Amino acid sequence: GTPTALMVGSGIGAEKGILIRNGEAVQTFKEVKIIAFDKTGTITKGKPEVTDIITVEGVTEETLLYYAGSIEKASEHPLANAIVESVNKRNIQLDNLKNFEALVGMGVQGQVKDDMIYIGNRKLLKEKNVEYNQYENAIEKLETEAKTAMLVAKDNQLLGIIAVADPIKEDSIKAIRELEKMGIKTAMITGDNERTALAIGKKVGISHVISEVLPDGKVDEVKRLQEKFQTVAMVGDGINDAPALKQANVGIAIGTGTDVAIEAGDVTLVKGELSSIITAINLSTATFRKIK
Ligand code: ADP
Ligand code: MG
To answer: Does position 250 have pLDDT exceeding 90, yes or no?
Structure first.
């Protein structure tokens, strides 16, 4: 049966906003050497907002948002929500969309009237042979400010750039500093571009930043960390994160995230605050000291 101390531990955990789904993981917690965090929705709030709009000559912001919004209303990505919200605020009427497609790790595409519209990162525009070199410096500046720049193109012409910023959760910085103080290393795994990822990593105090990872590549990144650090915890909220949560020695799901992630995790941080991880580690240490 379950040792009494573990049951007591679980009870305290629930009180402190940590839901334990797998008791064994609680024991593993105290052996964790490195914790890998997903970025969007885990370290950040997952609610990006449009901060900058750059249009090419002859294109108005309204036109840019009209095309971008007409496509992104079909996407469930947080980046898409930011654009749709911005469109709604300005009362821009959107158009019908045909042939919508999400392009993994790159962005989205679709047809508005007779035009193909592409929204995404450099990789996407390169693939579609859209020239954006003139704006490279502007894009890099946005990324250095920890913003994600989305490039919008109509057929093979760049229309403009929409940048968003995703605010960092209030307690992320403090939690990561505390973990490092406890001697536990931290990493960030994200699909976002390297410069934005590094800027966010710097803000929260994570030096080990793994960027431009495709959704199904997170598992491999966890495996790689396990080869190097043995015992690895992974924290995430998204459908994409579920396999990585399973692969990790301790899978930690954000309670405000997707059900798929919660089901894959060993523990759930009910309020989604990263500082709950410190409580969980302390609980693990205290509980298993008692049993021995
Ligand atoms: P993440 O969840 O870390 O953002 P994704 O694999 O979902 O990683 O996305 C990787 C990149 O692809 C994004 O940073 C963005 O540049 C681009 N992208 C994905 N979805 C969209 C979208 N709906 N609109 C615009 N760009 C997108
Ligand atoms: Mg996420």
So the answer is: yes
> 211 C-alpha to center of ligand 1: Å?
12
Q: Tell me which residue of 31, 14, 5 sits closest to 232, measured CA to CA.
A: 31
Question: What ipTM was assigned to the predicted interfaces of this complex?
Answer: 0.95
Question: Could you give the angle at the alpha carbon of 267 between the alpha carbons of 187 and 255, nearest 5°?
Answer: 85
- C-beta of residue 209 within 8 angstroms of C-beta of residue 201: yes
Residues 251-273, mean pLDDT to the nearest whole number = 95
As a whole number of Å, the CA-based R_g of the chain is 21
Is the per-residue pLDDT at 10 higher than 70? no
| Annotation marks residue 38 as catalytic | yes
Domains of the chain, each with CATH number or no CATH:
4-45+168-291 (3.40.50.1000), 49-165 (3.40.1110.10)
Digit-coded pLDDT (tens) for 111-122: 999 999 999 999
Residues with CB under 6 A from ligand 1: 39-40, 72, 75, 77, 79-80, 105-108, 119-121, 148, 150, 190-192, 215
Q: Buried b vs exposed e over 81-92: b needs ≥16 C-beta within 10 Å? A: bbbbbbbeeeeb
